[in-house]
Specification:
Layout (H helix, E strand, L loop, with lengths): L7 E8 L4 E2 L4 E7 L5 E8 L5 E2 L11 E7 L1 H15 L1 H8 L13 E7 L5 E9 L2 E4 L4
Length: 139
């Protein structure tokens, strides 16, 4: 039995549309305070493996946690990279337009709220594609 009084959180993102980790996605960690308000507690970006390894331990007494994934800019960046591979001329023309709105992503952000128990570790993987996502408690 654990004697820790805090919980910890980690996450990673797999872009299922390309079968690869999603690198560079901004992730914000928030905790619900005693008044029921959300308070920012940490932030990170996914690394080349799609992982956030540096999220801080949760404050003592935390019962609810929120992870917010900013995925629209990830898909916009990925689209720009794809455009450059198509052809230099086509990419030049397409770069003139705002790419975030042209990214083709249906969910511009993904917010996951979950309950935690002191002393436990919570790994929350996000399986992502431009038109959907799935999340679960990993190990």
């Amino acid at each position: 039995m654990s004697t820790q009084t805090t919980a910890s959180v980690s996450t990673h993102i797999l872009d299922t549309s390309i079968g690869r980790p999603a690198e560079g996605v901004a992730v914000e960690l928030s905790v619900r305070d005693a008044d029921g308000d959300w308070v920012a507690h940490g932030a990170s970006k996914t690394d080349a493996d799609g992982r956030c390894k540096d999220l801080p331990a949760l404050p003592e007494g935390t019962a609810h946690v929120r992870l917010n994934f900013e995925v629209e800019s990830y898909f916009a960046h990925r689209q720009l990279h794809t455009d450059k591979q198509i052809s230099d001329k086509q990419a030049e023309e397409q770069q003139d337009a705002p790419r975030a709105r042209d990214s083709g992503v249906f969910f511009p952000e993904v917010t996951i709220v979950f309950a935690v128990t002191p002393g436990e570790h919570y790994h929350v993987p996000l399986l992502l594609n431009p038109f959907g996502y799935s999340v679960y408690r990993g190990s």
